[in-house]
Amino acid sequence: MACHTSGKDAPNGIGPNLWGVFGARAGARPGYRSSDALASSGLTWDRATLDRWLRGPIQFVPGSRMPMRGLADPGDRRAVIAYLRSLE
Fold it and tell me: Which of 26, 62, 67, 70 is the most buried (most CB within 10 A)?
């Protein structure tokens, strides 16, 4: 949560606000300038896409800017995805 906000009306932080991200087009958050790589990826944030992203963002979408190594543990990724799904 150091980089992202998650409240319905919260502003973007260093990273985009995560409210309503599940089911949204990747790289298209209002008021946030995503990397060209993510914006042109054609991805939608569904369960499978988020799992791959959380496993290793830079490896999944080369040229993206998410400075995170990734979550190796599938249970940790499932927990984050469940949390993101709840933000709607």
Answer: 26
**Cα(88)–Cα(3) distance, rounded to whole angstroms?**
19
- Cβ-based neighbour number of residue 67 at 10 Å: 10
pLDDT tens-digit series, residues 14-55? 999 999 999 999 999 989 999 999 999 999 999 999 999 999
Nearest Cα to 29, choosing from 18, 41, 37? 18
Strand partners, 25: 44
DSSP string, 11-78: PP-SS---TT-TTSBTT--TT----HHHHTS--B--HHHHHHHHH-HHHHSTT----------HHHHH
12 and 31 in contact (C-beta within 8 Å)? yes
